[in-house]
Design goal:
The chain is of the alpha+beta class. The protein has eight helices and 19 strands.
Length: 358
Amino acid sequence: MQAASGRDAPDRCPGAVQVHEAADGGLARVRLPGGRLTAAQLLVLRSAAAELGDPVLELTSRGNVQVRALRPGAATELAARLDDAGLLPSATHERVRNIIASPLGGPATRRLVEEFDALLCATPELAALPGRFLATVDDGRGDVTPLGGDVGLHGSRLVLAGRPAGRDGGAKLLVEAALAFLAERAAQDSRAWRLSELDDGPARVAARLGTQVTAPPVERCDPPAAGAHGAAAVLVVPLGLLTGEQSAALANAAEEIIVTPWRTVVVPAAAVDEAVAAGLVADPTSPWAGVTACAGRPGCAKALADVRADARSAVAAGEREPGALPVHWAGCERRCGAPRGRHVEMVATPTGYRSAVA
């Protein structure tokens, strides 16, 4: 039986070991389960980027970090540095450690992410998960459940492709659900990358877990806005590009940062002034809030425009009103890195940009 997704090859999602060759050199994606990154680890990434490739770190829509423009042969050195820093706990599972968590979640959320990550890496069969497979750990506020995870927990309730199911549990249940996805994929003779690509995927995986999907998808909650949130603060990283100066400022001001799926970072409130002085944004009304872009030219061979430069020009010209819909600039029809939910897309075409609400 042909997979409903029509996939005819394994996914080639980049990792820290399996580096993608982009137009500007090697591209490595470093998974950060729950987005957590210590100051020491951030400095390792900063120095590796400066010495091995492009000194600017890229934040992704899954709360990970990318190092791009790696010179030939630099991937091996990068992997060694990541391993020493504790950022590469499993070479076999490093591409499948895709875990997004509520960035303002408390210690219980953190422990759950750590436990699931450890179990994931300790389960040999789960190395076969596609690099696009995503787990979400939502503390119940509804910020990350709607982001399109394949398996997840909303509070303690199991979620399958965004649909709540009739089981409660923790990290072990997420492992069971991931294994059930692989079993159902094999039963369908499929190469699907995502649970939703399987025929009746959520319902059939739920049945393998002795339950059923029980409700419509969880309602979307807006991501945490820039600014203070109690003892923590959310900072916008313009276009998700963290410069060496900004990385150094964050590492100097905070023992740990959290990279979010919205290309923001969460830091202690006391770290805000130093980070803002380095160019990060704490003002929720800033025109940078909600503006994202793919790599564009010259980094991507498929791109038809330098979308980052064009996005900067649009922000500088004041073309976006505070409170307007998020805007994503895309270099081609693939729309890489586009946000979930309603947004304006600026898609480069051979004759200019096409604007539409997605």
